Amino acid sequence: MRRLNPSLIAGGVIVAVIVAMALVSFVWTPYDATLVTPSSRLLKPSWSHWFGTDKFGRDVFSQIMVGSRTTLFVGVVAVGVAAVIGVPLGILAAMVRRWPGEAIMRANDLLLAFPALLLAIMFGAVFGASTLTAMIAIGIASVPSFARVIRSGALQVMRSEYVLAARAAGRQPFPIAVRHVLPNVTSLITVQASVSFAIAVLAEAALSFLGYGTPPPTPSWGRMLQESQEFLFSAPRLAIFPGLAIAIAVLGFNLLGDGLRDRFDPKLEDRR
Amino acid sequence: MPEQIPTERVPTDQIPAAIQVVDLVRDYPRPRTSLLKPAPVVHALRGVSLEVKQGERFGIVGESGCGKSTLLRLIAALDRATSGQVIVEGTDITRLPERRLRSLRENLQLVFQDPMSSLDPRMRVRDIIAEPLVVQGHPASGARVRELLEAVGLSADAGDRYPHQFSGGQRQRISIARALAPRPRILVADEPVSALDVSVRAQVLNLISDLVDELNLTLVFVSHDLSVVKHVCDRVAVMNAGEIVETGSTGDVYAAPQHPYTQRLVSAIPTLQRALSGATTSDLLAKGDPA
Amino acid sequence: MSDVLSVRGLSVSVRDTALVSGVDLTVGAGERVGLIGESGSGKSLTALSILGLLPEDVRADGSVRLDGVDHELVGADERRMSRVRGRDIAMVFQEPMTALNPTMRIGDQLTEAMLIHKTLAKPAARAAAADLLDRVQLPAETLRAYPHQLSGGQRQRVVLALALANDPALLICDEPTTALDVTVQALVLDLIVRGVMDRSSALLFITHDLAVVATVCERVLVMYGGRVVEAGPVSEVFTRPRHRYTEGLLAASDLETTSRRLTTIPGNVPPAGRFPSGCVFRTRCANATALCEELPAWTGSETRGFACHHPAGDADA
Description:
The complex is a heterotrimer. Chain A is mainly α. Chain A has helices at residues 6-27, 60-95, 98-113, 116-127, 131-158, 161-169, 173-210, 221-227, 237-264. Chain A has nine helices and no strands. Chain B is α/β, with parallel strands linked by helices. Chain B folds into two domains: 17-29 and 41-256, Rossmann fold, CATH 3.40.50; 257-291, no CATH class. Helix content of chain B is 33%, strand content 23%. In chain B, a hairpin with a 2-residue loop joins strand 4 (83-88) and strand 5. Chain C has two domains: 1-88 and 168-310, Rossmann fold (3-Layer(aba) Sandwich), CATH 3.40.50.300; 99-167, no CATH class. Chain C has ten helices and eleven strands. Chains B and C meet through helix 5, helix 6, helix 7, helix 9 and helix 10 of B and helix 7, helix 8 and helix 10 of C.
């Protein structure tokens, strides 16, 4: 019987709710999130508009629902890009001889030092602002953290006796990487992925806020925040709803990451 | 083409050596501590020579840092020597590239010390045992795995489970099964029972002993525990600080150690018999304090 | 001679599983008592319960009293226990690196041990630290060293010095030399024995190594499955064992035997908490009968006894 893992449960629930919201938004939203209705501008929350409406009369709740799609989409693709590049890079750096390994990590550090947002803005300016450029930029900016974490995990695996046994059996380096190293760093990958997801959510919001992310009219939590700026005192709810959504999403993914890490680490010890 | 060692003509009735080590040296460079002085070097092995005959049970005894693990790795071609030779079954393997070591990998297998970390936690037991076979291109037959599990006293369904579901002694059995999979002629065991409880140790030692007899293997048994080596092996080499200080039959070395280090080692081992005849802790130090 | 440590009916359980049941043991002043057992026997848990260092969801019941401490140790709150630890009871664990603060110099750690319990003022503590190191045969320079600069054996000697700093009434050692080389072990064992003899402290020595217990201790208790199965003077228990497990353990550890094969105890130790009802050893005992499904009562006295329905040596009185 394992101890209850509150982080895993809380994080899991939050993430599940967001995913459910995104899925549901494909088939139903209370209103069309992009429909401009000048007559219904800046309405307070009511039974007909649960979160009220924005300056264009668009239903805020519907926007939050559709916006979750963007958030998740960007997160998944960004983390995917980061993992597909970062994991092999980390494993490679751990398995080659000393100097090439160090060289790879120093190049990695350069990328790490480069401000992610700046990179994304540059991408946006060069290739045009769109969800795609945001995803790829955030993904590339997340590569260094993956590479570092995976490299240290892979180094530990390489030092283990079972890898020594595999070498004694005659295994070549590439099969060792695939058969032994990769499976034993998956828990690290999972944890890093959920943490990077949280960062990606924030990054996308920031980019949209600055105008370099998802262009209108596609709803995006970040842009909703930006558009709420002029109404900060008159209608603070327009900032609170998307802001809370971002905060809860980030919290959820972080908790999930913590919970997954706790769940995988004592696996071998807590056998009661 | 295996390189032949230049020796004198060997009489046909003399059994060839399974393992020969000639003046083996292994140095490790350490990171620089000063810009002016050269980088310090760790001399893990300072010219070690020994010979293990076919079918022999040979023990290597020493404390931590004596170089026994380094010696094992060099014999198993898991590391490169700085100088000297390692000759296994007539082939000089010292400087052979990995792709030429295939027959070594089939004929010499290792059992490691730590039952916790010598098995990949993410692999099922049957895959762990079959790995040497798979790597060497033989089909991974379920029958062979079951045969091996039975030989080490584990049930056939153990193959479906993961290492963490087994106790330390059982994991050592899995380790032994893996080592025996490619039908090696030489079994090298690196402290195989040091991490085990007394009653489990007895079981695993019996298992190793039985298998070595049954399969006619040459056994190299490394340990820091001279009592264990005395029970299992016919001859023993005592190592200290990268050198072999004494070699001989285990009975002789234990009863009448010649080298001062061996004498200190023997007197430091607490035994039930000595304790019951009144030995105290100060008697363990009878030959002088260690450095 | 009054007992320094008196343990009565100690039981340790986690959630609903019993890990240690009904342990009675006493250690007198200046006495050296060994607690022998293999993994899963509950010996380390017994030591941790005495010190109040059990993990969070693990509970202890029963009584542990220490001479000179006026309250019950089982269930005592952390504030009271922290005054007892390091002063009245000290412990040496297996892993010296975890007992030492890697960021503090050895000398500072030694003086801190004395200052916490207010045994000495600062200047006197510094002199005492140097003296303590000398008694474990470490040079004075060690005072200024950090733990990572020392070898395993040297660290363990520092831990021993720390433990003895405040002249504890009871020293508990849990596998203190298992991770050390044989020659270093010999030195550390000798230092432990001399350390407790100099201070007339009581010693509770926990290990799985029969030879070590026989060399270090006068009395021994054998644990299996969370219970004490046999107790008595070392010379008797190891030459005329009564409990079948003790008998099996002695046979299995006899490496001097001339036969190729060692005597083994059939089967494996059941996982913690899954020991059989009645006699804990009956599933592996060649002499077990239906009677053994009932928990065997303790035969003999506190200082020499066993719990077995079919003990060895029954035929010869």
